[in-house]
Design a protein that fits this description.
Strands 1, 3, 4, 5, 8, 9 and 10 form a seven-stranded parallel sheet that branches. The chain is globular and about 50 Å long. It has one domain (about 25-235): Glycoside hydrolase/deacetylase (TIM Barrel, Alpha-Beta Barrel), CATH 3.20.20. The chain has helices at about 1-20, 70-75, 90-95, 95-105, 125-140, 155-165, 185-200, 210-225, and strands at about 30-35, 40, 55-60, 85, 105-110, 145-150, 170, 175, 205-210, 230-235. It is about 40% helix and about 15% strand. It binds zinc ion (ZN). Zinc ion binds near residues 60, 61, 115 and 151.
């Protein structure tokens, strides 16, 4: 029985290796961060230790029933991995889709519970949104979130202190493609990505998997990265103790 299965396993192994060959973007390497209250992203903090032409793919505001599956397909087609910063209310509504991200080898963090402008809220409400987002993450994934990305990248002293205290990494960005405009076309997004990359040369890229035009454009955007010689670094965190 085992002998009969073996050739099949070998064939399927070879097939997937061929599909993820050098013509695909792939993942060049993984950085595993400690669970500690540090902050990364040159837009606001220390840059991640990346070499020239190394990029980290990140997606905010999901999961979206309509658009996140398209993003997952585009990433799988290029054999590459990303990090998703999820909204608490969205994962509570769609826990299966959220867990699919982990099953497919991606990493996740939280991006607030309701995506408020934290800086315009009283401290008590800021911390309440944080507590709710952490509870939502814990309920869906069974562990504490290792990382937090601020909605609108709007940081506040009270939130930064609370995240540090909880050993949650603040994940800012190095570059983005301003992909929240619903009218954007694939050509526009590809041009913005090229311009941002030409300027920054490396870093954490912010995109939005909940945004329809981004999901539609992603196969092209990943091709831009491949054609321009960029390498994907996958960001992960050590497991919760
Ligand atoms: Zn957002």
């Amino acid at each position: 029985m085992i002998k009969a299965l073996l050739p099949m396993l070998l064939i399927s192994g070879l097939a997937s290796a061929a599909e993820c060959g050098p013509d695909k973007l792939n993942t060049e390497r993984t950085i595993t961060l400690k669970r500690e209250g540090v902050a990364y992203g040159a837009h606001q903090h220390t840059a991640l230790p990346l070499a020239d032409k190394e990029v980290v793919l990140t997606f905010d505001d999901g999961p979206s029933q309509e658009n996140t599956p398209l993003v997952l397909k585009a990433l799988a087609d290029q054999c590459t991995k990303a990090t998703f910063f999820l909204i608490g209310e969205h994962i509570t509504q769609q826990p299966e889709l959220a867990r699919r991200l982990i099953r497919e080898g991606h990493s996740t963090g939280i991006h607030s519970n309701t995506h408020p402008h934290l800086a315009s809220l009283p401290v008590e409400q800021q911390l309440d949104d944080l507590a709710r987002s952490r509870a939502a993450y814990q309920a869906v994934f069974g562990v504490e979130t290792p990382a937090y990305r601020f909605p609108f990248l709007e940081e506040t002293p009270a939130m930064l202190a609370a995240l540090k205290q909880a050993n949650i990494t603040v994940a800012s960005i190095d570059l983005g493609i301003n992909d929240w405009i619903p009218e954007d076309t694939t050509d526009i997004l590809a041009r913005r990505l090229t311009e941002s990359l030409d300027k920054a040369g490396r870093g954490i890229i912010l995109m939005h998997d909940a945004n329809g035009p981004t999901a539609k454009a992603l196969p092209t955007l990943l091709k831009v990265l491949k054609d321009k010689g960029y390498k994907v670094v996958h960001l992960e965190w050590e497991k919760a103790k």
